[in-house]
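Weekly structure sync, notes
Attendees: PL (lead), two postdocs, one rotation student
Agenda item 3: pending single-chain targets
PL asked that the sequence for the first pending target be pasted directly into the notes so everyone works from the same version. It is reproduced below exactly as submitted, 340 residues in total.
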Amino acid sequence: MALEAPTPTPGVGPTPAALESDEPHVAADASTFALPAGSFANRNKTTRVVSANVTVWKRIREIWRSRELLINLVRTEIKVKYKNSVLGLVWSMISPAMTLAIFYLVFQVILKNGMPNFVIFLFSGLLLWNFFQTGVQAGTGVIVNNAGIVKKVSFPREILALASIGSASVFFFFQAIVMVIFMLALKAPPDWKLIPLLFLALAAVTVFAAALAVFLSAVNVYLRDTQHLVEVLLTAWFWACPIVYSYQRTISAQLHRHHLVWLYFLNPVTPLVMTFQRVLYNIRIAPVTTPDHTLTVFLPPWPWTTYALADGIILAVSVVLLILALMVFGRLEGNFAEEL
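Predicted structure, written out during the meeting:
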């Protein structure tokens, strides 16, 4: 159960002409990915070859030099997705707005689940999850979907996976606008003092999603079932996060009773989702709709430092995972052309 997020369009990507227009910038001077043009017939051009011996730090520098290409890839993907659409990016706001309106009608008006402003609680988690899911799912198949470009045009291939995270961040921004509108309509302000925690959690999920996208995009070239497996795992992963249900209200007691709290929080997305809920939902204790108006705890009574520490640890681990993903990508991309 998740908000309808923009799904990756198979085969959508920059045209070879668009990439070639950026090639002089990408292949500037003595790049670690380049060989002297004199070794080829055309001595006026610099030609790249894939080398698994390039260190990860040189790969990172090459990606940084190609940041303009990364921005162009994100812009191109969004333009192609909404090509010939009258409303364009407005659709990325209409879809979640309609879904939230239905959730509000079903859970708060008809079923009356007893949780005040449940739609805000739900959207707090979905906002981050949709960003994570969209980026990882799109990034997994991006190399295969753009096989023609990968085989014909020379550029750092990791940029394709990173561009999927970039386009997901654009959709995240527009869904965040919908979130603000609903919070204003329901008069449910966030905890303004904890707003910086949102940026820490967002940075952590961005790096974590980028690490998975880079790694899975390379693996999917050799094992094509990876893309389908990821879709299934993401569905199960969604329910492993306290998005639709309240961790404190529903499963906290059982986890503590069986000493499984540590296992539940091995899921790196869980603390990030709970950070968004703590800041945006901002209702820790409230009476439920019972005759005696019993007080119910919806969010853990943790200090802000607990959230900050958890998010900081996830960010640090994600940085390490991204470095490892780039190393694996570098080892595997040597045979991309043959496999594609």
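Discussion points:
- The CA atoms of residues 191 and 279 lie 5 Å apart.
- The longest strand covers residues 285-287.
Action: rotation student to compare against the earlier draft before next sync.
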